[in-house]
UniProtKB/TrEMBL annotation:
Protein name, per record: DUF951 domain-containing protein
InterPro entries: DUF951
Taxonomic lineage of the native organism: Bacteria, Bacillati, Bacillota, Bacilli, Lactobacillales
Pfam families on file: DUF951
């Protein structure tokens, strides 16, 4: 899937707040994503991110 910085993505599992859309805020070996509803930040490896990524919503 093609994603960049500030891309809105949908993950397979929703966040605890119930939202399912995230914004990519940092890229590298690790990916940092921010929940669009409660603005919590989650950091995961690129491999885990690509495994849990469902679709790219908006660039």
């Amino acid at each position: 899937m093609d994603y960049q910085l500030n891309t809105i993505v949908e993950m397979k599992k929703p966040h605890a707040c119930g939202n399912n859309s995230w914004k990519v805020v940092r890229m590298g070996a690790d990916i940092k994503i921010e929940c669009n509803s409660c603005h919590r930040i989650v950091m995961m490896t690129r491999h885990d991110f690509e495994k849990h990524l469902n679709k790219v919503i908006k660039d």
